[in-house]
Amino acid sequence: MSTANYPRVDSIRAFNRFYTHQLGLLDEHLLRSEFSLTEARILFELGARNGLTSSDLRQQLGLDAGYLSRVITGLEKRGLVEKARSESDARAYEIHLTEMGQQTLGGLQQDSREAVAGLLLRLGEPQQEQLLRAMTQIEMLLGDSNRSYVLRDPRPGDMGLVVQQQAELYAREYGWNSEFEALVAEIVAKYLREYDARFDRCWIAELAGKVVGSIFVVRHDATTAKLRMLYVDASARGMGIGNRLVDETLRFARQAGYKRMILWTTSNLVAARKIYQRAGFELIEEEPVSSFGKELVSQTWGRDL
Questions:
Q1: What is the per-residue pLDDT across 169-214, written as a single tens digit (0 to 9) for each?
Q2: Is 257 helix (H, G, I), strand (E, B) or coil?
Q3: Helices (H) and strands (E) in the chain, counts
Q4: Which of 77, 140, 210, 272 pairs with 148 at a CA distance of 20 to 30 A?
Q5: Global pTM exceeds 0.85
C-alpha cells in the first residue's frame, strides 16, 4: 500500500476506536443483565429472523461452532430457545425462541433502545438525522448488498409517499384503478388518526436515501393484529426486505401481547403470498370479488403468534 494512503488509514482507525467506545457503552448496559454479550446477540438474531440454524448463526455472528453449541445448549436449558428439525433440510435443526425467550428478548430490546436513546439525547433533531444518514452511507459503502438498506420509523411526508408508491406499483404491474389508491389513502389516514404506539406500528425500508418498502401492523381486536400494505419497490427486490418487514411485524405483535395475526391479499399477488407462507401464515378463506377494476380472488390469511 502506498504511504500516501496512511493518513486515511489512520483516520479510519481513529474513528473505529471512537465508535468502539460508543458501542462499549451500550454493551456494558446489556451486560448488566444476566446475559453475556454473545447470548444477547444470539437472542437478538433469533428475534429478527425466523428459522435460523446453528450454521446461520455461526456465519452471521462469526462464532466458533463448538462455542456456539455450548451457548445454545445453555439458553435451551434456561427455557429460552428450542430446536425443531428443519422442514427444508432433515439434517439440520432450526432454533426458535420460546415464549419465555420472546419475553426476555423484549426486555433486552427495551434496555437497548433506552441506552441508544440516551446517546441520542446529546444531539438535536437535525444532528440525529445527519447521524442516521451517515450511518446508512457507511453501511452501504462497506457492507454487502443484503445489508445496505435500513428499516426505520416513518417521518413526516413518508405516508404520502407510501400512498403514491402503492398506487403506482399496482397500477403499473396489475392494472388496478383509482379505487385501490383510495383504499390505501383511507388505510393510511385511519392509521395516522388512530395510532396507538402500544398496538400499532409502521416500518419504512430505506436504501440510499430512497424509500423502497413499507409495512403496517394495526389492532384488529383485543387479541388479533392485522398486517397491512406490505410493499417492496421493484428496484430493491431480491434483498430479503419483504421477509424482514413481515418478521418485524410478527415480533412487534408478540411483544404487544397479540395472540394472532391476520392479513388480506388477493390470489394474484404471488410473490407476497410466498412471503406470508414462509412466515407461517395459512389461508383462512377466499372468495371472488370485483375490485379495483379487475375480477379478483380475495383472500384472508392468518397465523397464531
A1: 999 889 999 999 999 999 999 999 999 999 999 999 998 778 999 9
A2: coil
A3: 10, 10
A4: 272
A5: no
